[in-house]
Amino acid sequence: MLPLSGGHLTEPGRRDRARRLDRSRARAWILQIHYKWESEGRKTTLLDALADTVTTRRISPRRLPYVEQVITLMNEHLSDIDEALGWALDNWRLDRLTTIDRAVLRIGGVEMLFVDAVPPKVAIQEAILLAEMYGGEESPRFVNGVLDALFKKVTS
Fold first, then answer.
1. Model-wide pTM > 0.85
2. Residue-level pLDDT at 8
């Protein structure tokens, strides 16, 4: 539903906006969990890193279900996600990327490939925002290029 005149949102519009904001913030948590997992040498699973994070940090109950969903999907399909990203990387290998760029690409990849509720273009845009906030100077353009190539590959 579109906002009413005067810029006021209807109740369904407010809920939709809140849900989008919760998902954006959930992605930041997913990035932190992935970073923790990789920084600790990938000795456990992503689910273990999530469980450890939940015991030491407070993730909003509104965001936690999405964090759990994406971390679970990433844990179950990591090799598929990495293979798909490998197709999209031009003259790069996933293991040569920074931890942040790799995590952002995996988040975008899992959403594009396995989360039907998130349109691929939204997954790309959200990944670019994560790259802008947490990555290097070139990260947003790099993430955009890789995920756009992945999008073209999976929709062709």
1. yes
2. 54
